[in-house]
Amino acid sequence: MKWPDQKGKDLKIYTLGQFKVIKGDKDLSQKYPRSSKPWLFFQFLITEAGVALPSELIIETLWGDNHIANPQHSLRNLVYRLRQMLEDSGEEQYIKQIQGNYCFNTSCNYWYDFEELERLSNQAFSLPDDDPQKIDLLTAAFELYRGEFLPSQPYDEWTVNMRTYCQRIFLKVAMELSLLYQRNEMWEDKINICERALQFEPFEDNLHRNYIQALINSEQKARARRHFHQTNTLFQEELGVDLGFDIEDLINNNNGSDSAPTDTTWTELQELMEKKDCEQGAFLCDGDNFRMIFQLEERRAERNIRRSSLVSLQLISSTGRKVSREELTRRSIILKETLLNILRKGDVICPNKPGEFFLLLVDVNPDKVDKILNRIADRFYQAIQDQEIRINVKHRPLLQGKKI
Predict the structure, then answer these.
(1) Which is nearest to 362 in space by CA: 315, 316, 293, 274?
(2) What is the pLDDT of residues 196-219, one digit of tens each?
(3) How far from each other are the two terminal CA atoms of the chain, in whole angstroms?
(4) Domains of the chain by range and CATH?
(5) Collapsing DSSP states into helix, strand and coil, what is residue 343?
(6) Rounded to an integer, what distance in angstroms lies between the CA atom of residue 319 and that of residue 210?
(7) For residue 104, what are the CA distances in angstroms to 60, 82, 87, 191, 202?
(8) What is the mean pLDDT of residues 86-104?
(9) Average per-residue pLDDT in the chain?
(10) What is the pairing mode between strands 110-112 and 11-14?
(11) What is the residue-wise DSSP string for 234-272?
């Protein structure tokens, strides 16, 4: 598909769901398929487009711990090769050098799918809901997203933030389109957009809820029930959690039924407190509940009430191979049990997707976090007895008196 903003652009860069570089009518990424290091360098540059990156950082990112006799010379050779591959004219260089730093030249004549996704979504969200152009812009942004940012580099740290950011934009666009279709009672359009979004984000419970709601609204209750039970089973098997809603509640609410009470009574809260008193270990929850708890802890941190830390755990292969979903699911079950056994009552565990967990360590001194995470890693490695599977850990404190 050609996008209006592509017209007249010399260089076209695709990173969502694929990596492709087009110049004129030539696919340069296909022309130089074996030039993996120059393309990796280019991907790093466009991920930080417009930012001058120090040569030392580039060398560390591209070569890691591998010994190179003359790193600066190797980098200069790499720059030369990449410029040749991009057919850099010299008049309008795509790769700029600024006092030993390198960057992608954002002043050149190019089109970049990530930047277009960002531009379309920002323009759409600046419009009121009754503006007919809003749906068109959201649809264009939705169509542009073809999958994860640079999927060929799934475990490189420098792609993680951008990948998460693109996913957030895509989900926000999909949910807003769903809401607009809901308001206009365009049930088939809402069903279609949810089905397509779930192909990319199968573990996003809000999308499932919107999809099921659209099926109910379009009088497809049997199909809605079937999807709910299939998805709930999938969540239980792969994430160890249920969907955060009940299908019958959605159907009853849609029918205007008042058979089920909507108010919470004092007695119910007391019973819940008694039940919770009997529960041990950390709290296991879905993404929506985790976000709410995280926001609450952020507010507490701003008021200097207590110190907490946000943690990301991701299972990866030490050899760099892509770990299959089936293997990640098996390992995730063991990691979840490890977390439940080690973390305390009050800590929060959120299985995000197979092989990935978010944690909230509540009321823990920042200097103790590494010790806790080391205990988790040691216990997990002891349980799996596999030297290849490792835990990639990131954590940061919730800053006291300052919003993150």
Answers:
(1) 293
(2) 999 998 988 889 999 999 999 999
(3) 39
(4) 4-112 (1.10.10.10), 115-254 (1.25.40.10), 281-397 (3.30.70.270)
(5) coil
(6) 39
(7) 18, 12, 14, 40, 34
(8) 81
(9) 84
(10) parallel
(11) HHHHHTS---SS-HHHHHHHHTT--SS--SPPHHHHHHH
Name which of 88, 89, 186, 205 is nearest 138 in CA terms. Answer: 186
Q: Is the pLDDT of residue 264 over 80?
A: no
In this predicted model, what pLDDT tens digit does every residue of 268-305 receive, in sequence order?
A: 555 555 554 445 568 888 887 888 888 888 777 766 65
Specify the DSSP class assigned to residue 94. S
The pLDDT of residue 302: 67
Q: State how far the Cα of 361 lies from the Cα of 164, in Å rounded to an integer.
A: 22
Query: The tokens of 156 are what?
Result: 């490189």
Q: Which helix (H) or strand (E) holds 226?
A: helix 221-238
User: In the structure, what pLDDT confidence band is assigned to residue 180 with cuts at 50, 70 and 90?
Assistant: very high
183: three-class secondary structure by DSSP:
helix
d(CA 65, CA 62) in angstroms, rounded, equals: 9
Residues 6+ apart with CB under 8 A from 343: 281, 282, 349, 359, 361, 372, 376
* pLDDT given for residue 187 in this prediction: 92
SS (H, E, C) 284-318: ECCHHHHHHHHHHHHHHHHCCCCCCEEEEEEEEEC
What are the CA-CA distances from residue 256 to residues 211, 213, 217, 219, 260 (Å)? 19, 14, 12, 14, 11
Q: What letter represents residue 194's amino acid?
A: C
Whole-angstrom distance, CA of residue 245 vs CA of residue 81:
54
What is the average pLDDT across 134-158? 90
The CA-based angle 274-277-278, given to 5 degrees, is 100
Place of tokens 């007919």: 132
248 phi/psi in degrees, rounded to 5: -70, -35
**Is the C-alpha dihedral spanning 72, 74, 79, 80 positive or negative?**
positive
67's enclosing H/E stretch is none
Does residue 260 have a pLDDT over 70? no
Phi (first) and psi of residue 311, to 5 degrees = -130, 140
User: Cα 9–40–95 angle (5° rounding)?
Assistant: 45
pTM summary value? 0.65
Q: Does residue 115 carry a pLDDT above 80?
A: yes
| Per-residue pLDDT, 268 | 54
